């Protein structure tokens, strides 16, 4: 059984999960056609028939979900730098479709981006200062900053 989050009255039941999702796809295409006939623009493209991609079907290719999974993986220290470099990236394409990009960069950049998005303006400025003005930091200050970071990491693990 499958229900649609924003339309709880729409229920799709079949013994086959694939058939359930085909029924959802048919319903979605019908809704898109209905909206198109009323002149609404910027709608997703019609979903093609064929086998359902399980990862996509459950939203697991969403960049937000991928990022959350990678954060959890990093927290439990699954990956080495080699593991992270091998991870494909998922991006939204035209019409909201998602596709995999070849691996590139480090996962730390994505994790840092998430951290930066939660930081205050003052925190961001302090970090930028630490990163860009190495000459103004003596070894003791660098070690102190690293120790504060290590302490915070340890708190989150206990």
UniProtKB/TrEMBL annotation:
PROSITE patterns: FYRC
Top-level taxon: Eukaryota
GO cellular component, one term: nucleus
InterPro entries: FYrich_C
Pfam families per the UniProt record, alphabetical: FYRC (PF05965)
Name of this protein: FYR C-terminal domain-containing protein
Native source species: Panicum virgatum
């Amino acid at each position: 059984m499958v229900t649609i989050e924003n339309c709880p009255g729409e229920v799709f039941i079949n013994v086959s999960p694939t058939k359930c999702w085909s029924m959802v796809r048919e319903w979605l295409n019908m809704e898109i056609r209905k909206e198109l006939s009323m002149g609404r623009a910027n709608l997703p493209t019609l979903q093609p028939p064929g086998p359902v991609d399980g990862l996509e079907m459950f939203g697991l290719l969403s960049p937000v979900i991928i990022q959350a999974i990678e954060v959890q993986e990093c927290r439990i220290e699954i990956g080495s730098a080699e593991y992270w470099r091998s991870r494909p990236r998922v991006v939204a394409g035209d019409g909201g479709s998602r596709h995999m990009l070849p691996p590139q960069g480090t996962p730390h950049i994505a994790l840092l981006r998430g951290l930066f998005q939660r930081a205050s303006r003052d925190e961001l400025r302090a970090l930028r200062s630490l990163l860009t003005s190495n000459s103004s930091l003596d070894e003791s200050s660098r070690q102190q900053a690293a120790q504060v970071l290590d302490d915070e990491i340890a708190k989150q693990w206990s």
